Amino acid sequence: MLIQRFKSLVESYILLTFYYQLGIPDETEKRDNNGIFTDFEPHHLGNKEKFDYYSDVFYFKVFSCWEVVGHILNIQYNLGIKKIEFKKVVRQLKGKDDDMFLKLSEIMSNIEFINANTYRNHITHNYSPNMPGLVRRIDDNGVVIEYVQEYFSSSMVYENIKSVLELLKRSIEVIKN
Fold first, then answer.
1. H/E segment holding residue 146
2. Which residues touch 69 (CB under 8 Å, ≥6 apart)?
């Protein structure tokens, strides 16, 4: 299963890199007050659309790889966890394999891992952070709140993706040793 997830991850990485390198002028300074990309030409819209799609797939697949790593550790250490979540499995390693626990905890506390997890959570559960604009939500008291969402430019996402690949590589190296 891990090999299958890696193949999907590599495919999405290759395709998002291709569209990123074609050019996406979406930095903050290249937008007007309404969040409109001032330097966009028609082909940039297609590049961004495809980059956004493959980066979303990448984030789903990279965290899916970590979940498979969690399954491997759950079996290897006989943790008995029924609903596997990588972070939960790593926490359960404390006291069973403190060296692995510390090394994997270091990866999970890395700012790039945290940013990737935040990004994936936003695209999965909230809003798409690669689309500038207004967000409307209802708080716990039923009050409608509107705000301009934080925007992740293509270059921010691309740099994070490269860092996350290194973190996944380190995770695999930790569990195979």
1. strand 144-148
2. 2, 86, 171, 172, 175
